[in-house]
């Protein structure tokens, strides 16, 4: 996600998140953390009823864009509000809208030492309208590991031609 996309996301969040909610940011964040912690793995029909878990990395991705670079509180609150809808989407969806696989280096243990290991990463993107909200959920699998929730994104714009409208979509990596 580039700076322009971040600015558009912040503008969208500013229009959706009230000032009163921003003042309660810490409280909302803790409520979201408790909610997220209560999520059990779900079976996703689009992935052949394989389970998708909700690890701490997924919640951290809602807070941080990249390590040590926190998202704006309004953007975080907007994403927190979409968590239950993201879970519903994963339980109900039958179609994968986006798929990407690539090699990346991840930190792992090899010969009793931490090392960078080339690993295949798979990202799936699911887009749906849940209770009037158009959202995108990203699921990631690292190597042969389990499929894990990575992020929920308000699909606030798209660059595809639909309904005689052309609107802008996020660019780049499925997981941004």
From TrEMBL:
According to UniProt, the name of this protein is Uncharacterized protein
Source organism per entry reads Candidatus Kaiserbacteria bacterium RIFCSPHIGHO2_12_FULL_53_13
């Amino acid at each position: 996600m580039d700076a322009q996309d971040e600015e558009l996301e912040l503008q969208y969040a500013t229009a959706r998140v009230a000032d009163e909610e921003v003042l309660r940011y810490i409280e909302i964040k803790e409520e979201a953390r408790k909610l997220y912690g209560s999520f059990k793995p779900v079976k996703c029909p689009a992935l052949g009823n394989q389970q998708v878990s909700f690890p701490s990395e997924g919640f951290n991705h809602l807070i941080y864009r990249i390590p040590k670079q926190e998202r704006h509180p309004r953007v975080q609150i907007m994403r927190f509000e979409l968590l239950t809808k993201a879970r519903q989407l994963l339980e109900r969806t039958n179609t994968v809208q986006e798929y990407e696989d690539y090699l990346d280096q991840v930190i792992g243990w090899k010969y009793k030492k931490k090392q960078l290991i080339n690993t295949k990463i798979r990202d799936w993107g699911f887009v749906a309208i849940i209770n009037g909200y158009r959202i995108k959920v990203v699921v990631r699998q690292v190597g042969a590991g389990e499929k894990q929730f990575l992020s929920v994104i308000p699909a606030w714009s798209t660059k595809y031609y639909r309904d005689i409208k052309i609107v802008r979509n996020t660019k780049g990596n499925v997981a941004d």
